[in-house]
Amino acid sequence: MRAHFIVRGSPLFSHFSLHRLLRKALKDLNFNHPTPVQVAAIPLAMEGFDLQVCSETGSGKTVAYLLPTLHRLLSKPSLDAGCRALILLPTRELAQQVFKSCQELIQHTKLSTALICGGDNIDKQVEQLLDNPEIIIATTGRLMEHMDQGTVDFSALDLLVLDEADRMLDMGFSDDVLKVVEASNPNRQTLLFSATLNNRWLPSVAKQMLREPEILNVSGGRSAHSNICEQVILADDDDHKLRLVLWLLAHERFDKALIFVNSRIHADKLSGNLIRLKRHVAVLHGDVDQVKRNRVMSMLRDGKVDVLVATDLAARGLDIEGVDLVINFDLARRGDEYVHRIGRTGRGGNEGLAVTLVKSTEWNLKASIERYLKHQFEPRVIDGLKAAYTGPKRLKASGKAVKPKKNKSKKTTANKKKKQRKRNKKAVGKRRNPSS
Q: Is the pTM of the predicted complex or chain greater than 0.85?
């Protein structure tokens, strides 16, 4: 097993020995220069290596695994009926996006693909599976239903891909992932892609599914995004944060903006406030059903709304073109969650801005995330909206606030008086010892 740390390198797609029908599709799509993760992963995957790849969100991981997967299927036709490539993803939106990309790349081929994810009619999916598609793109939860019904067979699987594996495991699908692995052809090739490596289950799952993998760390995880400006603005309270959001939406140039909150209640409240102030806003959280989710995504793509308020759970796997601005209204609870949030902007080499609003109760969390990222946010003050809160008076070496010491003497004296009163109350009516 060798670990590779790769940051740059940009030949042409034509330099890869890809199948001619894939080269034709790339030309039609005007894909000329691969991204660093594609440069690193495609040649190794084409040679048949198992891969464990860490690369930041929006770096081009989808094409990095689709091209070698499709090249293998086209270069080595199989007479065995059944699924030959399985691509497993954490969310419906991401599965739909990967399906679309796959359809574009196989447009000149006879390869068939099935999309298996929750929210769609399961009987229609069974009909698709009966046609024995070579490629299945699926979310874990719905795939488990088909495995339980016996409508899928992975005994002839040539290649298994896990995209956003860290997200999948964070969502509690580690046992389901291993169930898929156990049901798959043991001689398959496996490609595991993630944006961070800070998942406690990832090493164990990777060990059970990968064979002597090549490990690629391509400008991902904790390193600073070269094309995303990360800023922090201090705030006094949530009302102050709302005023800051309104200023940013009014003065920053963006095609689409994504605002993150930590709960459904905050999502509904913030979106409601913005709608009342005549902003074109949509909202996504765990209680939004699939029909409405599809409608929200369609409105975003069509430009009918330009601001999306979302929770982390709802926004996992979203790939929305034209997101120039990400605002963390509530600070992410963990460093890897922050990485996924800001990765919604600055995609495909475009510039992006990520602004995090921090009040006093979030300072230590901000310091923890900065320590995880190994870089600090750029401080910013907006004229006329400067917070009264300017940060803690004293800081630890970690950047966290030093909590003021409590006055123990007053507390101790009060406790002593309280205990004395209790003793006096118990002693009422008792005779004192004359010798005392």
A: no
